[in-house]
Amino acid sequence: MADVIWCKKDVGGKPCNTVNYLDPYCFWNWEGKINCAECGTVYYIHTIQGHMYRGPDEKQGEKPDLSPLYADKPLEGYKGYYPGIKGKTRPYECLPRHIYLGKADMVKFSIRGRPVRGWRPQPPSGGLAGQFPYKWDIQKLSPDVWKEYQEKKKKGEVKDW
Ligand SMILES: [Zn+2]
After folding, report:
1. Are 61 and 49 in contact (CB under 8 A)?
2. How many domains does the chain have?
């Protein structure tokens, strides 16, 4: 985190005591208004290279430019606001592209058309982590891949280089 805003605003006789986290990606060099995720108090801040240069100064009745990414209440255990709560925190938009969020493809043949070992399920006889360090009896262990390999050979899809 670049910095935090520990909100001490008096809410109903008790301090708000919410820590609003300023993530460096958005707030490293930033000037504007940000809301407290719990009580909604708007603070003006000016950060330069991750340091709070000015603020946080309360701005009553003004609208925030940005929300914190998340906030929590360290004095109340795990209570907090996670990313993407409307009007409180910003959504987290740093996930990898959707094509990278699925399952890995099982590759059975190398780019030269030769069978590879890194697919599953491996038989229990393979031992720990399914490894066959010196002998990979593909014909016996995976007759279907063996058949596919023979067909690839016939079609001339297996090369050395
Ligand atoms: Zn607050």
Report:
1. no
2. 2
Asked whether residue 96 is assigned to any structural domain, the reply reads: no
Per DSSP, which regions of 16-59 are E strands? 18-22, 30-35, 42-48, 51-58
Question: Residue 132: is its pLDDT beyond 70?
Answer: no
In the three-class reduction of DSSP (H, G, I as helix; E, B as strand; rest coil), residue 129 is classed as helix
Q: Measured in angstroms, how far is the CA atom of residue 10 from the centroid of ligand 1?
A: 8
Q: Quick one: pLDDT at residue 129?
A: 61
Looking at the domain assignment, is residue 15 inside a domain? yes
- CA–centroid distance, residue 99 to ligand 1 (Å): 38
In the reported structure, the alpha carbon of residue 159 is separated from the centroid of ligand 1 by a whole-number distance in angstroms of 66
C-alpha span between 109 and 114 (Å, rounded): 5
Q: How far is the CA of 131 from the centre of ligand 1 (A)?
A: 56
pTM of the model: 0.59
